[in-house]
Amino acid sequence: MTEQTKPLAVVTGASSGIGLELARQFAQHGFDLVIAAENQEIENAAVELRTAGPASVQVEAVLVDLADVDGVPRLYAALGGRRVDAAALNAGIGLGGAFVDNDLGPELKLIDLNVRSTVHLSKLLLRDMLARGDGRLLITSSIAATMPGSFQAVYNASKSFLQSFAEALQDELKDSEVTVTSLMPGPTETNFFHRAGMDDTSVGQSDKDDPAEVARLGFEALMAGKNRVVAESLLTKATELANKVTPDRLKAALHRKMAEPQG
């Protein structure tokens, strides 16, 4: 193994959207990268990212579905014992529709990807970081973590888990040099809503935040060691503040208006 000359970052869900933009932030700031996703676009992303910054960086693409039981071990093995200075655990999927109408399989895959893989990879990376004495971990939560998700019931619950998980880790690690940051975006201009089957919803058809700006704010918060950042628009920030005082029953009704299919 050659000696590392640049810091190394791991980014999951990096083939598009917020994940690709997070990887771009790392590349632009001189990090070598290991990026992961379940689709072939991850190879194209690697080519692009190698020259995304003022100086070229090494980028290794790992084609892996982290929802599979062997996905996280495969990604971790690809690191080959290298020092990981920062990681952005961003892989995740959504799913719209009424809970009783949805098939169970996609809901369980959502849980496996959004929740189980994040817990598993966090376990491996944080143990290494603590043994070494430093490191930074970013977990992509969501503004959805702050409200019951009518017509996105499993997705919002998964993000509530991740937000609680991140906050608990922050307290456990407060006396160390290892930091955990949660990134809480609102609706963002990515392929998320189309993949979630939500094109015919109010939120799916609405104006959305810029993934590049969301990623920039997330990267800056990560590097500053902040506990969390709500990104990116004033509307997203206002929603997060309002949800602190709005009763859950009302938040669920408001979410229904955004996420219930209009057809």
Give a brief description.
By secondary structure, this protein is α/β, with parallel strands linked by helices. The chain has 10 helices and 7 strands.
Features:
263 residues, alpha/beta, seven-stranded parallel beta sheet, 14% strand, 7 strands
Account of the protein in words:
The protein contains ten helices and seven strands. It has 263 residues and is α/β, with parallel strands linked by helices. The protein has a seven-stranded parallel β-sheet with strand order 3-2-1-4-5-6-7, sandwiched between helices. Strand 2, helix 2 and strand 3 form a beta-alpha-beta unit. Helix 1 packs across helix 8 and helix 4 runs parallel beside helix 5. The longest helix is centred in the middle third of the chain and has 29 residues, at 104-132. The model has no long low-confidence stretch (mean pLDDT 96).
Q: What topology, given as strand order, has the largest sheet? A: 3-2-1-4-5-6-7
Distance between the termini: 56 Å
| Strand portion | 5-15%
Q: Provide mean pLDDT, rounded.
A: 96
How many strands? Answer: 7
Biggest pleated-sheet summary: 7 strands, parallel
Spans with pLDDT under 50 lasting ≥5 residues?
A: none
The value of Rg in angstroms is: 18 Å
Number of helices, where a helix is a run of at least 4 consecutive DSSP H or I residues: 10
Shape: globular
Helices and strands: which structural class?
alpha/beta
What oligomeric state best describes the polypeptide chains here?
A: single chain
SSE string, helices as H and strands as E: EHEHEHEHEHEHHHEHH
Q: Helix coverage percent of residues?
A: 40-55%
